[in-house]
Backbone:
């Protein structure tokens, strides 16, 4: 039997407002434990929360960028649960009347576009952080409330995703939208963007959904994709052996590459939702909505179209470049200085992203600035250095922050384009490899590549490859 996966994502994004959702404490990440707190976010008796206008504004921005209908009237609710990361024993959230509904996000997987429905977008507050300390006699747990009360946006998709690759594309696209609208930092590693994945499988062609599980604890796109792949296989194996999938919450164990059962799934009624009596409902007037809509920045999809249209970039390149606002900004600045857009995109998608990922840096924190990359590309274009040396210089620029020209001069990497100088090396290589020479003369064209390689090696990559080719052919 063939199966199909059904996936829906619940994404939490921390909003980068300066202060928390219902008090004036800072939202700054880190800090000494329990220093970004006050009686309100500590849930002390007798205090009253007050909604931060910026939270609503950021929520509106994201909701409109996600093509949602914004509610003209919404309210906050208490979601009750007892856990030490939650000082009030309830979380202020939104239940039956969320900020926005019925949106969509367009994704593209393998060249095919698809609209993924967004069921709802609502505002809520984050909980504190628990730090478990091992110790003799069982250890103990510390609580840091700095994060308690930091505003979150929860964005719930419809169960429209059909594969781990689609789920990943959705998550990447959503991250891009939240970055472009500048409502969240979206750092999955720091937890400012988090995702729970609901997944079920069903026989291909079936119209009913299967029983779903909810997978938590994935803190990268790769982890999301791997966790879903594993979980889909696990569910299929259960069905194939005649069993039934249990509805439950499972955690992704990154090191073992498996999902493990955490707890049986809680239902809405377990949380005893009721309207938050300490906050007035929100009435959002149409004027405010329209103002935010007018001020929306260019979004990833239209920027992508623009790169394809204005620079003739292949759609794939444009997708990679615009997946991050910082990367797209970097690209624009580099192309302004070095107008061969395809060359710039090749470098960004290749060595640049490879080194950034390896060092865990964002594009705007790269030691090589767009000006530096443009300088390097000019050196290569004018023939001062070969492509091979350019790659080497780029690594050096990345590691030291030095300029391309400086490195080329310091290390004597200027390309050898002097036929006289190269001729001697060519002679030497030919003399050393009589058999290869004979092979080439005997019709084995491939032998030429070997000889070119030897000359490049002898010059430590500095020889002008086109000239080497020409000289060899002349002599042969
Ligand atoms: P619950 O009430 O169990 O939390 P919701 O209807 O709120 O379920 O949906 C939560 C998330 O699960 C949404 O993203 C939704 O798209 C997704 N979802 C719902 N049903 C399924 C299913 N059968 N398989 C996979 N995902 C599902
Ligand atoms: Zn506070
Ligand atoms: Mg739910």
Residues:
């Amino acid at each position: 039997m063939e199966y199909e996966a059904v996936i829906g994502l619940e994404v939490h994004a921390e909003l980068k407002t300066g202060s928390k959702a219902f008090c004036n404490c800072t939202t700054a990440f880190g800090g000494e434990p329990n220093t970004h707190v006050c009686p309100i976010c500590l849930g002390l008796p007798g205090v009253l929360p007050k909604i931060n206008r910026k939270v609503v504004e950021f929520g509106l921005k994201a909701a409109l960028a996600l093509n949602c209908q914004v509610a003209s009237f919404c309210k906050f609710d208490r979601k009750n649960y007892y856990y030490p990361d939650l000082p009030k024993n309830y979380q202020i959230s939104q239940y039956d009347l969320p900020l926005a509904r019925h949106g969509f996000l367009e994704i593209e997987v393998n060249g095919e576009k698809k609209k993924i429905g967004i069921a709802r977008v609502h505002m809520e507050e984050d909980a504190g952080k628990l730090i478990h300390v091992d110790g003799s006699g069982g250890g103990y747990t510390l609580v840091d409330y700095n994060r308690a009360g930091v505003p979150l946006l929860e964005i719930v998709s419809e169960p429209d995703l059909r594969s781990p690759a689609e789920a990943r594309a959705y998550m990447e696209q959503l991250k891009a939208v939240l970055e472009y609208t500048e409502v969240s930092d979206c750092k999955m590693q720091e937890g400012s963007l988090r995702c729970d994945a609901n997944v079920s499988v069903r026989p291909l062609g079936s119209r009913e959904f299967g029983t779903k599980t909810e997978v938590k604890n994935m803190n990268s796109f790769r982890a999301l994709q791997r966790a879903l792949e594993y979980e889909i296989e696990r569910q299929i194996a259960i069905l194939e052996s005649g069993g039934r999938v249990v509805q439950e919450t499972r955690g992704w164990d990154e090191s073992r590459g498996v999902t493990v059962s955490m707890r049986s799934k809680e239902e809405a009624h377990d949380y005893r939702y009721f309207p938050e009596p300490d906050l007035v409902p929100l009435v959002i007037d149409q004027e405010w909505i329209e103002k935010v809509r007018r001020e929306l920045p260019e979004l990833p999809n239209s920027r992508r179209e623009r790169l394809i249209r204005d620079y003739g970039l292949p759609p794939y390149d444009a997708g990679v470049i615009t997946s991050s606002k910082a990367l797209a900004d970097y690209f624009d600045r580099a192309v302004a200085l070095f107008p061969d857009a395809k060359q710039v995109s090749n470098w960004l998608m290749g060595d640049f992203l490879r080194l950034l990922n390896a060092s865990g840096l964002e594009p705007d924190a790269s030691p090589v600035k767009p000006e530096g990359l443009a300088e390097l590309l000019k050196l290569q274009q004018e023939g001062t250095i070969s492509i091979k040396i350019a790659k080497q210089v780029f690594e050096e620029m990345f590691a030291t922050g030095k300029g391309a020209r400086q490195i080329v001069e310091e290390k004597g990497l200027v390309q050898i384009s002097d036929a006289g100088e190269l001729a001697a090396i060519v002679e030497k290589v030919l003399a050393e490899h009589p058999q290869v020479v004979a092979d080439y003369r005997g019709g084995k064209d491939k032998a030429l590549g070997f000889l070119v390689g030897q000359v490049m090696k002898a010059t430590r990559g500095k020889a002008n490859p086109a000239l080497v080719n020409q000289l060899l052919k002349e002599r042969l």
